[in-house]
Amino acid sequence: MKSFVLAATAIILLAGIAAAHEEDVHTVQYNVDNFEDEVVKNNHFVMFYAPWCGHCKRLGPTWEELAEMLNTEGSNVRIAKVDCTTDGDVCNANDVTGYPTLKFFKIGEKEGTKFRGTRDLPSLTTFINEQINMEGHGDEVPIPKNSGGLTELTEDNFEKFVQSGKHFIKFYAPWCGHCQKLAPVWEQLAKDIDAEGVVRISKIDCTQYRSNCNMFDIKGYPSLLWIEDGKKVEKYQGSRGLEELKDYVNKMVGTKSTSSDDIKEEDKEEPSSVMLLNGDDFQHGIESGISFVKFYAPWCGHCKRLAPTWEELGKKFIGNPEVDIVKVDCTLEVNKQLCNDQEVEGFPTVFLYKDGKKISEYNGNRSLEDLFDFIKKHMVEHDEL
């Protein structure tokens, strides 16, 4: 009987481990048969783990979000993992002495660099960017503004540069495969258009200057925006060939008015019903009443799907002074410490606060009705205190 119970327990544990990894659909799984051959073909960020490891389980959703972002066609970074309980030889060869161990392998190299920072998405993506830039895999060297070519924008010159005139701007990330393919076309476009002197072609690295990119709600790379006098007119959605891009510029210059009355009605953004807080004003913003806070990343797929529901939720509590629907962008530098302090380990993470104190994490269905009911339940409890 005892042996039967032990066997049944083992089966249940194995089933639980399998279920825990069923959703890892974007992460590449390597083993002793393919690790050495594959890791040298591209830059790799690898998690060496054990399925029973608590820290590994907590990192799992974040690692999968990272894979969803980077494991795309043309990307020069692969997010992978190795199970040290089944492929111990690989882990031993890479000096893995604890779980999880995270190592970055540069293309062509078998020795990895160990990640020693905080295991949140902003820290992980910053580490990746640092490793790639060390090898010179960033975007092309910018052409100086006064040369009549492509302008490289930074946080120091962005706002002043775009506040007047017509601009066609590429918002990009150095590790993005599609951005790398577009780079020479974008440079040629800048050279060709500059001769006409009617619009300025620019680019900005969103991994370095996140606040500028978030001003225009950049959620994917590359994003190509037409901006006039500091205001977004529209996002370019067409083919990224040189001739198609030139045709678009000619169309915008020839027919598009800078008047806000000429902007299509569907392009006008409604005021948000959600309060946007950051590391500087967070505690003040949640100090009274109920605050339902979504911690998110703009590029996160699950966050994007939740966004319209979150806006609708905010509308339901407009005019209610006791409830605030809030969002915090954890990719912004000003929010990095805040998200760490609040123990945000994956995106989106939703916490409910009462009078400045964290009460509960929401783990239920993300439908509007369930979110609304969760808040109403806590409103009743709040009133009874």
Walkthrough of the structure:
It is a single chain. By secondary structure, this protein is an alpha/beta fold. Helices cover 39% and strands 20% of the residues. The strands form three sheets. Strands 1-3-2-4-5 form a five-stranded mixed beta sheet. Strands 6-8-7-9-10 form a five-stranded mixed beta sheet. Strands 11-13-12-14-15 form a five-stranded mixed beta sheet, covered by helices on one side. The chain is flat. The relative contact order is 0.09. The model is unreliable at 1-23, 135-148 and 255-269 (pLDDT under 50).
Which structural class do you get from the secondary structure elements? alpha/beta
Give the CA-CA distance, first to last residue. Answer: 51 Å
> Approximately how much beta-strand content do the residues carry?
15-25%
Helix content percent band: 25-40%
Runs in which pLDDT lies below 50 for 5 or more consecutive residues are 1-23, 135-148, 255-269
Rg over CA atoms, rounded to whole Å, is 24 Å
Strand neighbour order, sheet with most strands: 1-3-2-4-5
- Mean pLDDT, to the nearest integer, reads 80
Total of helices: 13
What does the overall shape look like? flat
- How many strand elements? 15
Helix-strand sequence: HEHEHEHEEHEHEHEHEEHEHEHEHEEH
Largest sheet: 5 strands, mixed
Organism: Nicrophorus vespilloides (Boreal carrion beetle)
InterPro entries: PDI, PDI_thioredoxin-like_dom, Thioredoxin-like_sf, Thioredoxin_CS, Thioredoxin_domain
Pfam family, one: Thioredoxin
Family: Belongs to the protein disulfide isomerase family.
